[in-house]
Amino acid sequence: MQPGLAGSKIGYTVGMNYTPRAKRKYSQNFFTDSDTLSVCVDMMKLQPNDHVLEIGPGTGVLTQLLIERVKHLTAIEIDRELLELLQIELSHDDRIELIGGNFMRWPLEPWCERAPLAKRKLVANIPYHLTSDILMKVINEKGLRQSGVHPALPYFSDIFMMVQNEVAQKLVAPPGSKDYGVFNITINLAAEAEVLAILPKEFFTPRPKVDSALIHLRPRLQPVVEIADQSLFWQLVTRIFQLRRKTLRNVLRSLDLAEEVWPNLEKNWDLQLRGETLSLTELAALAKMLSA
User: Fold this and answer.
1) pLDDT by residue (tens digit) across 111-162?
2) Strand partners, 97
3) Scanning 62, 98, 113, 175, which has the fewest C-beta atoms within 10 Å of its C-beta?
4) Domain that holds residue 35
């Protein structure tokens, strides 16, 4: 977490004169403090040659800060009313491309062809109910589960998102904790995760029931652990958390393993452990043994 912000909340002053009516169907919560938002953008350390994709520019407060710092900004907005307002305010600037549409239906590959990976960044204040879906899309979960981590996997070199603080804490949860699970493992296989700052609910309108957090994901170019068999690894991980609090022995029995596998497991593993206490390295090693 950013020095001076760890365990604390950034102070704020309201910085917007106008906020459109939020639409419940889009789960909109507008950030209402331009000063704090500027601090958040400074944390991102964006470069003048960067190409940034912004999901849900909303009222454009973050959008205007991004335009000042990068070479080109693509902003995709699902709300037609907000898109029209953004076009009035920003369409004169040739550094920005405004797109109307649903990000979840928008293909990333053509956009990625415009710039090398090192220059491709994502910035977003995303709807709470779509957090998991959006995160899985931007880390390329489909590619991760099929082929594992490799240099062609990432869409972005850096991902900055405002998410529920509860989700942010899941990203950095240690093995054995209540927040450690398939979601955590997926994100941490694909990227390094960091919580940059806690953003109190008072920063947003309408005010949500929970605080948010600014997270930073750095997608990996090389695997953090060796996974011999992607299908078997994900089968094992899924079953462990389906049977949370069961011993490793019971989890492995549910996989219907061949009898000749068990002596080696008994010799090398404490099968009385709970599966959810295993680290990424241990999960990969266990899956490797099973595949052998």
Assistant:
1) 999 999 999 999 998 888 889 999 999 999 999 999 999 999 999 999 999 9
2) 74
3) 113
4) 24-219
Question: What is the residue whose two structure tokens read 């939020």?
Answer: 22
Widest distance between CA atoms in the chain: 70
Q: Note the residue count of the chain.
A: 292
Q: Check residue 256 and give its pLDDT.
A: 84
Cα–Cα distance measured from residue 79 to residue 56, given in angstroms and rounded to the nearest whole number: 8
121 occurs within a structural domain:
yes
Instruction: Check whether residue 121 and residue 247 sit in a common domain.
Output: no
- Closest of 53, 17, 31 to residue 199, by C-alpha: 31
Closest CA to 171 of 182, 158, 187, 157: 187
- Tokens in use for 273? 């452990």
Tokens (6 digits) for 180: 């450690």
Q: Do residues 29 and 22 lie in contact, with contact meaning Cβ atoms separated by under 8 Å?
A: yes
Please check whether residue 54 is in contact with residue 75, taking contact to mean a CB–CB distance below 8 angstroms: yes
User: Within 10 A of 252 (CB to CB), how many other CB atoms are there?
Assistant: 22
Which segments of the chain have a pLDDT < 50? 1-17, 25-26
Instruction: Examine the domain organization and report whether 234 and 215 are in the same domain.
Output: no
Contact in structure between 170 and 132 (CB atoms under 8 Å) = no
